[in-house]
Design goal:
Elements (H helix, E strand, L loop, with lengths): L6 H5 L37 H14 L17 H4 L42 H4 L10 H9 L10 H13 L7 E6 L7 H15 L4 E6 L18 H6 L7 H5 L3 E2 L5 E3 L5 H4 L4 H11 L5 E6 L8 H7 L2 E7 L2 H16 L3 H5 L2 E5 L10 H11 L2 E5 L3 H4 L11 H15 L2 H6 L9
Parallel strand pairs: 1-5, 1-6, 2-4, 2-5, 6-7, 7-8
Antiparallel strand pairs: 3-4
Helix pairs in contact: 6-17, 7-17, 11-12, 13-15
The structure holds adenosine-5'-triphosphate and magnesium ion (MG).
Length: 435
């Protein structure tokens, strides 16, 4: 089976959606890409924590472990350089060792600046050879000046641009396996579907991998109304044809893709059918999707007791607890956390992010700082999403049409969620309790 890591290779070549029902038709077979001829075997997660450990061990065996190139291995994760890299091997460094590939150092000379302050003429690393240059500004008068002068005057990037670049780097943190996040709230109309679409679109537009949102709302979910529909296929069709799905292009025939590249897997629109979407159905769906997608977002209904919910909670790496910016919204979100705590999901709650969503223009006299404090004490982080006229329309959502402060809040939310990506790979899965 094709792996998620081929996303970049096949993205442009994604198969067009079928016109109607979702049968995996021959037309859905890919004409290009590395996937042709693959075996249908279901692969496990592509990476495991052991992979990194093996690399370190091998380097230690070569005696390279002390080389500071690990510092650049994953600067955004911020853990590897200090946590896993052992110190220099005991004993004197072998003076006759060949230079480490790519570092261009001379035996006996360190790679960095020498302690006497004289430039190290033997060091051909990029940091030594490239003249420091300011990044081109991205916004405001700085950008205007830069562009207007034909690039001759570069005032450098603003604090805001630098902060945004930092957030984007966090959103792009490496992700091993498939990260599953569910939007939850006991109260209806607080913005779960809106959050699913906007957060998913933010990830999809900034990351190179594949992102999908699944509608698990038993009551005629509205997720599929948030992007232009390319297919009438639903999760029910995908499950029906699951054993014929081999490649990404097969599963793509059942999804619709928005301008951000976010894909959506719709639910049945007949409540009598969607009500019957069970825990087993949800697990089968996610098991299938995690072979092709790196981030799976699930838009839930309001009920915590509906049939698919146990599956949603058991497989989720994290939750987004959505509250409106009102007292009843905050109480419902808090009650959601109480219920989760009481039903064995305390760990999941502590990994979750609370979102205070301004579904109305004003929050009246509600002290939202205190509401934030309440959720901050129970969840990993709290983010506020401002009121946005484009979101208020309740139609298809395009990131480009959002106000800049809404986009900034979404970027912060995506970065906050992505901060958990590193831990998800090494997380021990919650045992599945008997029903
Ligand atoms: N940040 C926002 N700014 C303006 N309007 C918003 C915002 N978020 C949500 N809305 C409005 O609130 C409505 C309800 O949002 P949404 O459908 O996402 O809620 P929900 O929690 O999924 O509801 P349900 O429980 O019925 O599934 C949207 O149609 C939109 O009009
Ligand atoms: Mg909804």
């Amino acid at each position: 089976m094709e792996s998620r890591d081929d996303a970049g290779a096949e993205r442009e070549g994604a198969a067009p959606a079928p016109e109607s029902s979702g049968a995996a038709s021959p037309a859905a077979e890919p004409t290009t890409g590395p996937a042709s001829g693959e075996t249908p075997a279901v692969a496990g997660p592509p990476d495991s924590p052991d992979t990194t450990r093996r690399v370190d061990t091998a380097e230690a065996a070569r005696g390279d472990a002390a080389q500071p190139r690990h510092a650049a291995f994953d600067p955004r994760a911020g853990a590897a350089p200090t946590g896993r890299v052992p110190g220099p091997p005991p004993g004197p460094a072998p003076a006759d060792r060949a230079p480490v590939s790519g570092r261009f150092t001379t035996p006996g000379r360190g790679a960095g600046a020498p302690s006497n302050g004289v430039p190290n003429t033997y060091d051909l690393s990029s940091a030594q050879l490239l003249r420091p240059s300011k990044r081109p500004p991205q916004t405001g008068w700085r950008r205007a000046l830069f562009v207007g002068s034909g690039g001759l005057v570069n005032p450098g990037e603003s604090v805001g641009d630098a902060a945004r670049r930092e957030l984007i780097a966090r959103v792009n943190q490496p992700l091993h396996g498939c990260y599953k996040i569910a939007m939850l709230s006991l109260k209806g109309g607080v913005g779960k579907t809106t959050m699913t679409t906007t957060l998913g679109s933010t990830f999809a537009s900034l990351r190179g991998d594949r992102v999908i949102a699944v509608d698990a709302n038993p009551d005629r979910g509205t997720l599929s109304q948030k992007i232009p529909l390319e297919t009438t296929a639903t999760v029910r069709h995908l499950l029906r044809d699951a054993n014929r799905v081999r490649r990404y292009s097969d599963v793509r025939a059942y999804t619709s893709q928005g301008p951000s590249r976010l894909e959506i897997l719709a639910s049945e629109q007949d409540p009598a059918v969607s009500e019957a979407f069970s825990e087993v159905d949800y697990r089968r769906t996610v098991t299938l999707l995690e072979h092709f997608y790196n981030v799976v977002l699930t838009d839930c209904g309001t009920g915590l007791m509906h049939s698919a919910m146990k599956g949603v909670l058991d497989v989720a790496d994290s939750l987004l607890i959505v509250s409106s910016a009102s007292i009843d919204g905050a109480r419902s979100a808090s009650a959601t956390l109480d219920w989760l705590d009481a039903h064995g999901y305390r760990d999941l709650v502590s990994r979750s992010v609370a979102v205070i969503n301004y579904v109305r223009r004003s929050s009246g006299n509600v002290d939202l700082d205190r509401v934030s404090d309440h959720f901050a004490a129970r969840c990993r982080a709290v983010v506020r999403l401002p009121f946005d006229p484009h979101l208020e329309e309740g139609a298809e959502i395009e990131l480009d049409k959002l106000a800049s402060r809404t986009r900034a809040a979404l970027l912060e939310l995506a970065a906050t969620v992505a901060d958990d990506f590193g831990r998800a790979g090494s997380r021990v899965r919650r045992p599945v309790l008997p029903r």
